[in-house]
């Protein structure tokens, strides 16, 4: 640390901390919404209806094929106009904040990925699960809530962890729409102190540490969800090895 | 040919020995997989090795081509002592072909390409010559018609025969078989044994780990019985089956022949 | 505003500029894909090395360049490296002194880190028995790698590779922050001139979509060609769009990456 006084450093640290909180808030809000919508969409797309399938294909293809940054810009710049078109005069007066644009964009994009995971997991469930629940005359709501979804989550967990860490790494994009997040704070501090190297490396390490922490939690969660499944899993992997 | 284990006069004529193993030891951690093995194999000799699972028979033949590195004793193959040296290992592997329980064919190559790969890479054969060579050996295992097929399109017995042809294409003087029929459906065992019997008649040195006692009786010059990492009995096929000396071998034969 | 948010006249006018932007995006994709891949091989070998310090070093590289958001990497290279005196004086300043060079460096390092894991996954998936069979044939380690391990690793890792390339292309959209006029930057500048929030961004999005899907299509064809030895599986898979690779279907779930 060459020309940084302690007081300056403390000031920048505070700004970085505030930025980090905003990043975290953005990330958790977006992930929670993407998760809820993703699961709902995933279940909805099990419908055989051609219309539903068609809409799903188009939606998934578009948002999996376009950079998130463009979706953020589109919601940020075009959001009020879109709201205006839907809600009329009232909607047009709502200004979309960078934070709001980020949440909307990430929700729309990542709900597609999560829906895809959920679809895949449901398809991979043994058919007997549905039949068994039906044979026992379990009401559909309970069947989904208590029987199907917990297993779906277990199957989808590795993919969800992937999406989680990928989304985390995309959150800095919202700073390009003007959000004062961790990366924006780091950029300001880097410019003001002429110490970009330190600040950017430190910021990168914050992201890496957060991901490492969440990976650890995820693997703990995985072992918990896997309880009682180990024999089945072992059987499956050995049969794959033999094939 | 009635020969009891290590032929006493063979040692004086090293040129007639294909493999000399003495005092061979192999550990897996604290487990002793091979516990002082002595075995001499003459040129052209056909040996069947049998024994209960975990007796060390696979480990023994896998040591001969250095798929497993031995911890003690010595192995001499065609006059070359097997050391940790990469070049020596390579030299020995040129002389020794191996056929595995699970075939281990290259899934991304056709039958003929499976056979051509090693001759092209090791001996620098041109594609045309390697193809001719491969075709020759595929004919020998009666698979010329299937030369252009990928392994996934062949039955287990056919795959194993391709694996035999692949090993033959390196024109090895010694062939090792590691339970070549154990992974096969019963109806395919005979086509593979048939090919192996034809090979045996051609004079190549064979070491074969197998439980096919009929094959042993028909083909083997000598049968070796292993248990707990040791050679318990080693003698000519006829007396091996008719007059086993040790109780362990008698029990084993009783079990396997019912 | 009419029902359609797109101003067709503006879209038509913007086409040439957007195509220029796409060209820049394509170059910023192609170069790091090549450089990153070239870098990934030695790092992957280090990562899989028995020497602990080497493996740890490689792992640290992967953790950092995979874990750090691309935007921060770009800032780090663009603003951070200029701080280092030796670099500013050295011959590499041609590279680090230009935004384009910085973008290439940051993108390549990021891609390399991802590719180390893709490669490693593919190599680890190669069945051990097949490698052993190649060793038994006396094929050298180098040749085994080139002719057996890599061809199979590519097949096992193709799906992961496709996912990485696709998300990489989308990731390049950030290079406009260091004043490179890629596709996103062109759309942004048209927006700033016209204040039309839809037309330029939607047009750019369409370009990205087309680019990404052409790449997907290419991978699909490549995968089908590589898997011709499993013709049955490929035919069965063709009915399930977006699920190309026949190998390792069960692990697809874990591999859906943005």
Automatic annotation (TrEMBL), chain A:
GO CC annotations?
A: ATP-binding cassette (ABC) transporter complex
One example of the protein's molecular function in GO is: transmembrane transporter activity
Q: Where in the cell is it found?
A: Cell inner membrane; Cell membrane
Q: Which residues cross the membrane?
A: 20-46, 58-76, 96-115, 136-157, 197-218
Asked if the record carries the keyword Zinc-finger, the reply is no
> Membrane topology type, per the record?
Multi-pass membrane protein
Gene name, please?
Answer: hisQ
Name of this chain's protein: Histidine/lysine/arginine/ornithine ABC transporter permease HisQ
* Protein family membership: Belongs to the binding-protein-dependent transport system permease family. HisMQ subfamily.
In which broad location class does this protein mainly occur, judging by the first location in its UniProt entry? membrane
A Pfam family reported for this protein in Swiss-Prot or TrEMBL? BPD_transp_1
Q: Which residues form the ABC transmembrane type-1 domain?
A: 20-218
Query: What UniProt keywords apply to this chain's record, in alphabetical order?
Result: Cell inner membrane, Cell membrane, Membrane, Transmembrane, Transmembrane helix, Transport
TrEMBL record, chain C:
State the UniProt keywords alphabetically. Answer: Cell inner membrane, Cell membrane, Membrane, Transmembrane, Transmembrane helix, Transport
InterPro entries per UniProt:
AA_ABC_transptr_permease_3TM, ArtM/GltK/GlnP/TcyL/YhdX-like, MetI-like, MetI-like_sf
Matching entries from NCBIfam families are given as: HEQRo_perm_3TM (TIGR01726)
- Classify the protein's membrane topology as the record does: Multi-pass membrane protein
Q: Where are the transmembrane segments?
A: 24-46, 53-78, 90-110, 165-186, 198-219
Q: Does the keyword Ubl conjugation apply?
A: no
Q: Which family does it belong to?
A: Belongs to the binding-protein-dependent transport system permease family. HisMQ subfamily.
In terms of superkingdom, the source organism counts as: Bacteria
A Gene Ontology biological process in which this protein takes part is:
amino acid transport
Q: Which residues form a coiled coil?
A: none
Which PROSITE patterns would you find in this protein's record?
Answer: ABC_TM1
Q: Does the keyword Lyase apply?
A: no
Against SUPFAM superfamilies, the record matches this protein to:
MetI-like (SSF161098)
Q: Residue limits of the ABC transmembrane type-1 domain?
A: 18-220
Its subcellular locations are: Cell inner membrane; Cell membrane
PANTHER family assigned to the protein according to its UniProt record, in alphabetical order: ARGININE ABC TRANSPORTER PERMEASE PROTEIN ARTM (PTHR30614:SF10), MEMBRANE COMPONENT OF AMINO ACID ABC TRANSPORTER (PTHR30614)
Entry GO MF terms: transmembrane transporter activity
**GO CC terms:** ATP-binding cassette (ABC) transporter complex
- Protein name listed in UniProt: ABC transporter permease
């Amino acid at each position: 640390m060459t020309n940084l006084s302690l007081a300056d450093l403390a000031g920048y640290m505070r700004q970085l901390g505030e930025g980090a909180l905003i990043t975290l808030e953005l990330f958790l809000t977006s992930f929670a919404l993407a998760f809820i919508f993703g699961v709902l969409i995933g279940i909805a797309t099990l419908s055989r209806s051609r219309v539903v399938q068609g809409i799903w294909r188009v939606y998934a293809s578009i948002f999996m094929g376009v950079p998130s940054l463009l979706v953020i810009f589109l919601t940020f710049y075009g959001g009020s106009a879109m709201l205006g078109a839907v809600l009329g005069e009232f909607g047009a007066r709502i200004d979309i904040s960078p934070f709001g644009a980020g949440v909307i964009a990430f929700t729309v994009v990542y709900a597609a990925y999560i829906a895809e995971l959920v679809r895949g997991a449901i398809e991979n469930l043994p058919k007997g699960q549905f039949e068994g629940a039906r044979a026992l005359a379990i009401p559909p709501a309970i069947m989904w809530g208590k029987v199907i979804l917990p297993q779906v989550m277990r199957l989808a967990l590795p993919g969800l962890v992937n999406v989680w860490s990928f989304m985390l790494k995309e959150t800095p994009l919202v700073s390009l729409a003007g959000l004062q997040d961790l990366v924006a704070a780091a950029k300001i501090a880097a410019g003001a102190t002429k110490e970009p190297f330190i600040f950017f490396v430190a910021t990168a390490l914050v992201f890496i540490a957060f991901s490492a922490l969440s990976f650890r939690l995820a693997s703990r969660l995985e072992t918990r969800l896997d309880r009682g499944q180990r024999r089945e899993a072992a059987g499956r992997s050995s049969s794959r090895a033999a094939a | 040919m009635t020969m009891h284990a290590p032929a006493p006069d063979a040692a004086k004529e090293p040129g007639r020995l294909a493999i000399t193993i003495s005092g061979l030891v192999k550990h897996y951690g604290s487990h002793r997989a091979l516990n002082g093995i002595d075995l001499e194999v003459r040129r052209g000799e056909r040996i069947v090795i049998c024994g209960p699972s975990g007796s060390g028979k696979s480990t023994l033949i896998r040591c001969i081509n250095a798929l497993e590195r031995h911890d003690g004793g010595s192995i001499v193959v065609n006059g070359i002592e097997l050391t940790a040296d990469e070049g020596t290992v390579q030299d020995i592997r040129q002389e020794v072909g191996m056929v595995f329980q699970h075939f281990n064919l290259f899934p991304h190559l056709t039958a003929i390409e499976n056979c051509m790969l090693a001759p092209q890479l090791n001996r620098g054969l041109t594609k045309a010559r390697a193809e001719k060579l491969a075709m020759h050996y595929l004919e020998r295992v009666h698979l010329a018609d299937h030369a252009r097929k990928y392994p996934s399109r062949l039955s287990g017995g056919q795959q194993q025969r391709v694996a035999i042809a692949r090993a033959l294409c390196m024109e090895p003087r010694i062939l090792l078989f590691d339970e070549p029929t154990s992974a096969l459906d019963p109806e395919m065992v005979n086509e593979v044994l048939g090919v192996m019997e034809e090979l045996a008649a051609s004079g190549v040195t064979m070491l074969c780990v197998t439980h096919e006692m009929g094959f042993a009786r028909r083909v083997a010059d000598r049968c070796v019985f292993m248990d707990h990492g040791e050679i318990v009995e080693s003698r000519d096929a006829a007396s091996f089956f008719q007059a086993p000396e040790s109780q362990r071998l008698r029990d084993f034969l009783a079990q396997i022949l019912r | 505003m009419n029902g359609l948010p797109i101003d067709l006249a503006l879209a038509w006018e913007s086409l040439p500029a957007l195509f220029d932007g796409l060209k820049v995006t394509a170059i910023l994709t192609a170069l790091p894909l090549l450089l990153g891949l070239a870098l990934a091989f030695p790092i992957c070998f280090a990562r899989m090395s028995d020497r602990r310090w080497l493996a740890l070093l490689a792992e640290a590289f992967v953790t950092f360049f995979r874990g750090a958001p691309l935007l921060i990497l770009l800032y780090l290279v663009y603003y951070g490296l200029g701080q280092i005196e030796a670099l500013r004086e050295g011959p590499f300043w041609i590279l680090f002194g230009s935004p384009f060079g910085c973008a290439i460096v940051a993108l390549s390092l990021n891609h390399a880190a991802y590719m180390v894991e893709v490669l490693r996954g593919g190599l680890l998936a190669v069945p051990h028995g097949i490698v052993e069979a190649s060793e038994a044939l006396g094929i050298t380690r180098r040749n085994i790698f080139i002719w057996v391990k890599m061809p199979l690793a590519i097949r096992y890792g193709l799906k992961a590779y496709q996912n990485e390339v696709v998300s990489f292309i989308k990731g390049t959209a950030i290079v406009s922050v260091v004043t490179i006029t890629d596709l996103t930057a062109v759309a942004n500048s048209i927006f700033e001139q016209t204040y039309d929030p839809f037309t330029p961004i939607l047009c750019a999005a369409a370009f990205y979509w087309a680019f990404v899907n052409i790449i997907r299509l290419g991978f699909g064809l490549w995968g089908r060609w590589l898997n011709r030895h499993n013709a049955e599986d490929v035919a069965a898979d063709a009915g399930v769009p977006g699920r190309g690779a026949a190998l390792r279907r069960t692990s697809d779930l874990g591999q859906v990456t943005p």
